[in-house]
């Protein structure tokens, strides 16, 4: 049975969010729309696993040999963070970061000058209402 058949409300909410992501523009530096492969993996039997604890010390008998070696995954995450932190300590990173701040300020000022409606936020989100220009987010992208 399909999700639409089993839970029409959740199915409709998912479709509405998918459409919102297609039709609107969100300028978020860390925005990440995952690939279909990631969506498939997240909706696979691998999400049925239940475990507690740290890599190498997982508890619960239903995690069988088909489970991946989570120690390797953790090592890759730690290595990726280490590389990121090392790069952020380089002398030119401060200039790079400042350029991002300056560019964001110019973008915001320019959008305001063009009559854009911008809302405040507590995070690194810029939401621009393009309806006043007769546009959709999809057209703007």
From TrEMBL:
Keyword annotations: Amino-acid biosynthesis, Methyltransferase, One-carbon metabolism, Pyridoxal phosphate, Transferase
Coiled coil: none
Domain Serine hydroxymethyltransferase-like: residue ranges: 3-62, 75-141
A Pfam family annotated for this UniProt entry: SHMT
Names of required cofactors: pyridoxal 5'-phosphate
A GO BP annotation: methylation
InterPro entries referenced in this protein's UniProt entry, alphabetically: PyrdxlP-dep_Trfase, PyrdxlP-dep_Trfase_major, PyrdxlP-dep_Trfase_small, Ser_HO-MeTrfase-like, SHMT-like_dom
Sample GO molecular function, one term: pyridoxal phosphate binding
Gene3D superfamilies linked to this entry: Aspartate Aminotransferase, domain 1 (3.90.1150.10), Type I PLP-dependent aspartate aminotransferase-like (Major domain) (3.40.640.10)
GO CC entries: cytosol
Family according to the record: Belongs to the SHMT family.
Name of the molecule in the record: Serine hydroxymethyltransferase
Species assigned in the record: Natribacillus halophilus
């Amino acid at each position: 049975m399909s999700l639409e058949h089993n839970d029409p409300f959740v199915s409709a909410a998912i479709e509405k969010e998918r459409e919102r992501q297609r039709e609107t523009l969100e300028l978020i530096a860390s925005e990440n729309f995952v690939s279909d492969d990631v969506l498939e993996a997240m909706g696979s039997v691998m999400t049925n696993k239940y475990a507690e604890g740290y890599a190498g010390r997982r508890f619960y008998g239903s995690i069988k040999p088909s489970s991946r070696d989570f120690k390797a995954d953790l090592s890759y995450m730690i290595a990726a963070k280490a590389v990121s932190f090392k790069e952020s300590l380089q002398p030119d990173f401060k200039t790079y970061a400042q350029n991002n701040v300056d560019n964001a300020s110019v973008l915001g000022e320019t959008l305001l000058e063009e009559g854009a409606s911008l809302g405040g936020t507590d995070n690194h989100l810029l939401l621009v209402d393009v309806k006043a220009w007769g546009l959709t987010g999809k057209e703007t992208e």
